[in-house]
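Checklist before submission:
- one chain only
- standard amino acids only
- sequence pasted in full

Submission:
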Amino acid sequence: MTISIFKKSLLALGLAAGMSTTVHAIENLTGETASPGGSIHLSMVHLAEAAAAAGVANIQVADGQTLTNSIQNVAEGKTDIAGTPYILPFLLSKGRGPYSKLGEEKGAELASNLRALYPVTLGIFALYAFDSKGLNGWDDLEGRSIYNGPPRGAALSNARSIIQLSTGLKDGDGYKGVQVNWGQAVKTITDGSADAVVLPILFPDSRITQSLASGNMTVWSAPLDKWNSEPYQKYLRAPGSAPFTLDAAKADLGEGVTLVTEDGTFRGLATIGGDIVNKNMPFELAKALTKAHIDTLDQLKKKAPFARYAGYGVVDSVKSGMCGANPLKYHEGAVAAWEEAGYTIDDCAK
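Returned file contents:
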């Protein structure tokens, strides 16, 4: 589906406060993002509204896209803005995974063209199951069937790694992994195909909310002893990943959900991404787009129940998945916008 979002009145959108820009002519831009319902889709659609209201740009947004292709389109200059989990620029830079046909040299060349505007938390991995399954947590997964993602991709790789780090069990050797596409996720959760689920969630989470009609659920935080181990901590800083913690009392997952933690704090590996542009985007345009995002963070966080904990406005280099092995840097214009707004961008992310 393609939607065109045109310039609207500042008053109608309630976005007048602080919306100034040095871009004199409104730009016509293209954007690509994931399917509706998640944080990366919300950030792009909100940017289109905010940028139009500020007189910065009209962004034609195509949603439901395969982000693997979207970031390559940005790198090649075919698309202006795209959402992505940060693991994809890393894989592109190495010519691995979905970019293996490009090879390392071409992949690295394309990845060097990518720059971030702002970060987004796509989801936080957790274990959950219907209470009727009688699951007793991470120590009770041996011999079970676990829905751990789509047939391929970063989510499946992360889920398998988290299960192994938490239990020592491997997919096919200790438990039976169940893989289906995202569009069949709720059906798979509710039809009993799996005893448990290890997938990224938000607070609240749409898949859990939809599944509660089939019975109450329990969600387990990462086991504390494993979380504190060196292997788990190292994995938390892999490209596209970051540690996430939240006071369990604030982790609203809905009536009928029990959250289990060992000390009142939910912990999990967060999948981090953001909206990115080509390095050749003009400085003032990248700055104005990022400023439109920053100036309307309060409105963005009110647009969906999960948005409070979706990492909007969190530019700490660890929590936002920047630096380290992640080759992605912020666009210079984005850095200027964040710093002028009083945020600190670490040198390693510039």
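Reviewer check: The chain has two domains: 2-121+272-349, 123-270.
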